[in-house]
Amino acid sequence: MARRAAGPALATPQERQAGLPAGVLVERRAQHPGLRLSLHAAAVAALLWPLRPLGDARRRRSRLMLQLKVIGTADLPAVLALQAQCYGPEFLESAEAFEAKLRAARHLHCSYLAVVAGEPLAYVVSLPVDDGQLPALDAPSVSPARAPRTLYLHDLAVSPAGRTRRLGHQLVRQVVHRAQDMGLTQVALVAVQGSRRYWEHQGFVAAPSPLAPVVAEKLASFGPGATLMRRALTPA
Ligand SMILES: CC(C)(COP(=O)(O)OP(=O)(O)OC[C@H]1O[C@@H](n2cnc3c(N)ncnc32)[C@H](O)[C@@H]1OP(=O)(O)O)[C@@H](O)C(=O)NCCC(=O)NCCS
């Protein structure tokens, strides 16, 4: 634009080489939307640069305040309270069912409570399972796996008060790392309450049909909309 306002100008070497009149290449570059956008982005970034330490401090503080605690039986009241905030009545499990899953994965440290500033805001419960196995919803007893290749992520819940902190992602990442540390090859889960897209965004894909009858039967305990999903792991 500046070149046109300044009157007739000499063609640049590139313009001469391409046989174009003076100003064409500058004009095209000035009109390129990507360039305009990146100029705007650079200007905004320059304006915000002095405020950067404030954002860093806030991010550091919120990371420091988050504690991922391995769930023990003493945490069950907190887990049940979070469950009640996150699931419809048809998905609620008893304390006995949670305890059975924690017992089946005793000492494996694969279920976590997310505590922020002393307040439990989210949890994930997972346990290794043998091929073709899947605990039914609200199963009162669960046998420990003998030769597991799968970490079964049974339940992820983030309270409405915790839903702006990416706690779900952090808990899933923790479980995936734990499964890799344990030498397992995949994480599996049952998507309910319309959460299939959420899991797809986290790298899970629906298990192909038909499922083994024993798995299909367990899946049915989660209701008609439930989907078995899996995510293959790369070794840690
Ligand atoms: C689903 C749930 C665990 C997500 O937890 P969260 O901490 O709020 O979510 P995260 O921070 O991990 O992820 C946020 C992203 O997921 C998206 N998301 C959240 N819930 C979603 C859902 N049900 N379907 C699709 N996307 C969803 C958000 O829009 C956001 O998207 P963005 O990254 O593009 O901004 C939480 O909403 C919850 O506890 N729901 C009730 C229990 C439940 O349904 N659990 C899963 C059953 S298998």
TrEMBL record:
<keyword id="KW-0808">Transferase</keyword>
<feature type="domain" description="N-acetyltransferase">
    <location>
        <begin position="66"/>
        <end position="234"/>
    </location>
</feature>
<dbReference type="GO" id="GO:0016747">
    <property type="term" value="F:acyltransferase activity, transferring groups other than amino-acyl groups"/>
</dbReference>
<dbReference type="InterPro" id="IPR000182">
    <property type="entry name" value="GNAT_dom"/>
</dbReference>
<dbReference type="Pfam" id="PF00583">
    <property type="entry name" value="Acetyltransf_1"/>
</dbReference>
<dbReference type="InterPro" id="IPR016181">
    <property type="entry name" value="Acyl_CoA_acyltransferase"/>
</dbReference>
<protein>
    <submittedName>
        <fullName>GNAT family N-acetyltransferase</fullName>
    </submittedName>
</protein>
